Amino acid sequence: MKRKSLAIILVAIFALSTTAFAAKPISLWINGKEVKPAVAPQMINNTTMVPLRVISEALGADVKWDQKQQRVTVTAPQQPVQQAGLTLEQLNKIGESVGIIYAYNGDQYISQGSGFIVDGVLVTNWHVLEGATQFVVAFGNKEATLRVADAVFKNETVDLIGFKLAGYPSLKLNTSEPMNKDKVYALGHPARKFTITEGMFVSSSGNGTRWMHSAKTDPGASGGIVINAKGEVIGVSVEALEGGYSNYAVQAKVLKQELAKVK
Fold first, then answer.
1. Residues 224-256 pLDDT 10s
2. In the record, which residues are listed under signal peptide (predicted)?
3. Of the candidates 6, 26, 172, 253, which lies 20 to 30 Å from 203 by C-alpha distance?
């Protein structure tokens, strides 16, 4: 009799526990945040049922109901294509076409900047050579001395100047506008040291003559290059503001217009 009573008591306790557990509402969490839909999640035949629209829209998907077809369509959001970028080896190879410039007025040192080669023309910023009569440009162990008066083009307004210089590897220009947040790299010689920085394309500026980007450029990098994830030159480093976090480059299309003047 005692055993039978004990069994009945245990069954009753189990039933009460199960009822209490089942009565507890099921909470819904999406990406670490609790969501409280109008229709609460339910347990049906040991399967947890949750509102499809609530979950889909919380994850950025579009949900549509077709009454005629009695059909629900869920469309996931498109993910941006991630750019693979360039390896350090590839960047260093491109850097072989980016030289360091030392500008002089006679024997007096004026400034230091960067320059690069496109179609046999050495390109840099006009302000790097402002007030100079000649300059030395070095690519690794090779260097050349050029006179500022021998420039094949000079445009103070867009801050570009170019000189004929053969025998050095040339870089390729890309004159199309990058997409917002495209990966970019800035290559130059700030503080007399070859440097590579990585960032993103931000926007057009300077009345359509400059790009703004986030690849940090310091003094001495002026005249260097800003390239895309394919290694193509999209701009010429020209200026940095706000501690180097707002960086500007003359657009490649502007440079191409100047190169067209070279005979």
1. 999 999 999 999 999 988 666 689 999 999 999
2. 1-22
3. 172
